[in-house]
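Why do we care about 3D structure at all? Because function follows from shape, and shape follows, mostly, from sequence. That is the central idea of this module. The next example makes it concrete: a single protein chain, its amino acid sequence, and then its structure expressed as tokens.
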Amino acid sequence: MVLYDRAMIEQVIQTSKTLAEVKYEIRGQLAHRAGELEKQGYEILSLNIGNPGLFGFRTPETMRLAMIENLGRAEPYSHQKGIFPAREAVVMQQQDRGVMDVTAEEVFIGNGVSELIDLSLRALLNPGDEVLIPSPDYPLWSAAVALNGGVVRHYPCPPEKSFVPDLAALEAMVTPRTRALVIINPNNPTGAVYDRVTLEQMVALAEQHNLVVLSDEIYDQMVYDDAEFIPLATLVRNTVCLTYSGLSKVYRACGYRVGWCVFTGELEKAASLKHAMELLAALRLCSNVPGQWAVQTALGGFHSIAALVAPGGRLFQSRQAVADALGQSRYLSMIMPRGAMYAFIRLDDALAGRLDDRAFALELLESKHVLVAPGSSFNTPYSDHFRITTLPDPDVIKDVFSRIDTLLAQHA
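And the structure:
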């Protein structure tokens, strides 16, 4: 019989200290509370995540068929970088965009962009190395830097500049410990799309200080009106650039968990980093193989996203419905998103001191059964914004903002 000391039984298991700087509130406490309310029978309008499949968007049928037809070839492990047809399709896409000095050897396929962000930062960072990340950011970037021993330095993309980076502030943040510059374009959560001059200046800064450029382009073809998406790899010459994209958003295939990372720029400088990333990729054996068989069809086929973001398209109309609702609201405003599938919305100054973004999001969930993401969860220095996805139908969006305005009227 084994006897246990009571203190031993009651001792709480300590978690890793690296988690102290990690937050991902998009799926955090508010989402858990929403789940509890759903178990109680309430219907929750969940606008906290850009998940196209939950709003009736389908993956193109040709991609599903490509996966089905190759299931027999998807049973073994693939190469740690991914199957050759998928990597070669990414190469062809890059060449179509004017990025010529790339081969399948420079392409990694992963379980979504999220995994590839983690692998590349793990390969790059030593404890104390600094990474420049935009504020607002997609919080996975900040979390991955912290988990891999790095130090996050948030450079401002302020609302008064339409969420475009403050280049003077960015340059002032570079130190001898700075290793990489993260650029998220089109931007999540703000919907900003950076112009060529801004991107050229950011690239020049990275080249001057020998920073690795990490370009998150998961929303690359999701732009509206006259916004132009500019692939960053077409601008980077004198440093190393890693470009991330995948099937989740533009191709509405979140559940396939397929993303890619492409090395371009000064590839000789990137040799050891690429080798380290391949080692880490090998340790996890390979990424999801069935989903990889959809890549060649996705990149080489008809791009249905163009119709969705054009005037009259569903994504365009839903974004317009948000703008129309805010035009009628006494308490809300936003900078019109020019890309991606989100609106980053500001609470009126009249609510300052009465309701910050977290209190607002919790009360909105509890009383109106609408789930949104507080703006400060995207690492902002201010707490008067919140993010919603613009994926719902216009009628749903109209209903959401009716509920929001009813709530805010009680506080204003």
